[in-house]
Each structure stands twice: as structure tokens, then as C-alpha cells.
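To illustrate this point, what follows is a protein record of this kind.

___
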Amino acid sequence: MHIGIIGGGLMGVTLAYYLTQAGEQVTLLEQGPTLGGLNGALAFSDGLAVARYQHAILPNDRAVRKLCSELHIEQEFVMQDAYSGFVHRSKVYALSNISDFLAFPPLSMLDRVRLGRTILQARRRDWRGLDQVPVQKWLEDAGGKTIFNLIWQPLLEAKFDGEYAHIPATYIWAWINRMTSIRRLPQLKGRIGYLRRGHFSLIQALSEAVVKQGGTVKNPVRVREIDISGGRVQQVRTHTGAMQFDAVIAAIATPSFAHLIPGADASYLAQLSQSKYLGLICPVMVLDRPLTSYWTLNLTDPTSPFSTIIETVHPEHESYHIVYLPKYTSPDNDWMGVPDETIREAWLTHLKQLFPDFREEQIKHFAVSRSRYVEPVYATHSSANRLRVQTPYTGLFLANTAQVYPELPTSEATIIHAQQVARQIRSSLNGGSPAVE
């Protein structure tokens, strides 16, 4: 069986790895000049490289750690303290341990107790009951409107570009469970990890293993269409010709997949059109000194152009500090078309308001990354409407992070899903019963 995989991001490359390790013939097609997608790297003129986007590896991310071990890149793993906090009304409040939490000034003691109760409820609840409840309703019922207005609403506004009315409570369930896994009692101190050269080192190791096992990686190859007729996949048309496969896996965002199958039934295209995504604009700065003492600061200011400040020491040059200033947007948000210099000016203007001692002379490098389809947006009742891996067409499969619900679309969830999809596809192609999706 010759399997074609469209998309050289983490999902596609991991799928190629698991399939070639199982003895399948695989050809991976990536439209960009390099692999990685959201997990790619930025290389500056002086040879310094940083990850395009920051990808944290948490203590419970066992699949990522196991895969790194298999690929013999454990030495790439770096740990740091996970100090975190909130920026509220231009003032920074630490929230890194139990003492910080109990002394959080913007909330009364009663509201702190209610916030703690909300977190405990999320930790103990089964997600299935939350799938049908809007996130705002659940948070207000659990903790009250004061906490929602002060803490949760600004975070939801920033995360979903203001459109969170139909977001299910499973989002906050998944977010709280993931973030609290960083910290351990009794002091709630925590640590996070990341890869020394960013996730691109994982992408590189995976692609090398694919080629070593007999697989093929082709880029840049722009796919124009996946030809489906007679109820099955026929061929993949690229800008340089057509390619024949026994099976094709589209490891790309759902809207991009829909554009590649114009011959699909209207009902299936309508189903795909229901899948919504968040885009991301993320300036990254390399500074010659620390901006803060925190790994992450969440902003509650609705006027801020960025919602979070993420900072790490450069693992190979400890005198440099990498700062990410992400802004999630709808894919058609006006900011997507704004020049980099305008974004730099807007972002830095607000940063100087927060940190009056900050000077642009401290910036050694500045770059803006943008991606239109970064994170799937789930609506209530998403459990019943999840897209299937097996499409209505024989030999054509879809694998992306819209299918990992109710988990967040993290690297951990991506790797686990890729492994499951690889098993399902092998079973299907070899005449077995498809795994339950």
C-alpha cells in the first residue's frame, strides 16, 4: 500500500513516522519550503534561531517525551520554573503558588474561595456533561458573576476574539486540567519543559526517521486538488502533475481540506464548513535582558493588542530572552493583513505602558508570525458533531486537531491522535474493522 500524506506539520510528519515504522510505503507532501508549519523555526541573519511559536511540554505530556526518547533527542529537552501571573489594570500579580493565590488582591476572600471551588469542580467533573453547557453559564454558576467578569471574561474575549457565546464548558475543563498539571501540592510550584531548538527539532528527527525507513518527503509541493470520483480517491493533482496513491490522508486544517475536494458531495462540504478555527498573530522578540520574571502573564485588559506574555531564556544563549506576544483572531480579522511594522508599533506601544523601563534598544531581533488556521473552535454539542477520520470516500482520510475534542489541540494530543489514526488506517486498508473514532 502506498499512502500519500498531505501536510508537513506535526500531525502529518508524526503520521508518516508511525506508518513507515509499521512497514507502510509513505510519501509526505508539504507545500512550504520547510516542514513544521506551526512548529517551524525562525532563523535570523546572525544565525540565531527561535521557534515561531512557543510550545510548552507539561509534566503529564508523556507521549511527547516518549517520542523524543524513541528518536534519541532527549538531550533537546529543557526545564524551567513555571512562574505565572495576571496583569490587571496595568499591575502584575503573581499566581505561582498557593500563597499568591490566597492573597490575590483583585478578589475578595469569598471570591478566592469560589475561584478555588471552580477549579476543583473542573478537575473532578466528567467532560461529557459539560459538552452541552456554554462556558459562560457554567463559570457563572460555579463561581459567580464577579469572578467571571474580572477573570474569565477578559481571558475568553482575548482567546476567542470576542466570539465565545457558543463555546462549551469543556474548553475551561480542558484548560484548567492541563494548566493545573504543571503544579504540585503543597505549594503549587511547577515547572514546564520545551525543546532546545523548539519543536522543529522534533519535526526534523521525525522526517529523518521517515526517510531512513524508506519513506519519501517532498517539498515544496502545492496540492491543487484531491480527485474523488466513483466514491473513492483517484489521484492527487499538484502544480507539476498528478500522483497516484492507494490511500490519501489530509493532515491539514478542515477549511484547507474542503478547498481541495471540490468534487465532494454538497452535504459533506456543508459538514466541513461548520468547522471553525482561530488564527494567530504572534510577534516574537529576542531581548538582551529579561522582560519579567514570569514564564507566562495573562492580561485582563481588553484594549491590549496581545493577550499573553510568554518568556523563556534562550537555551543556547542564556544572555538572550525570548518573548512571545500572541493574539488569537478570527481567520478574517483585519489584523491578518496589517504590515509587520504596524503590528510592531502597536504591540510595543502597549508593552511600554505596562513596563515603563522597557526600551526598544533591548530588542536584538523582532519578527511577526501569522497563521490563519491555528486552533479549532468547538461549539456546544461538539461531541456528537466531531469530524470522522474516514471520509465518505474510500481511501481518503482526514486527520487534524479538530478531532481531538474535548482535549486542547496541544502537541501531546496531536501525537496521541496521530498514533491512533495510523492504527485505524492500517486496519482499514488491510481489511480489518476500523477503530472507533
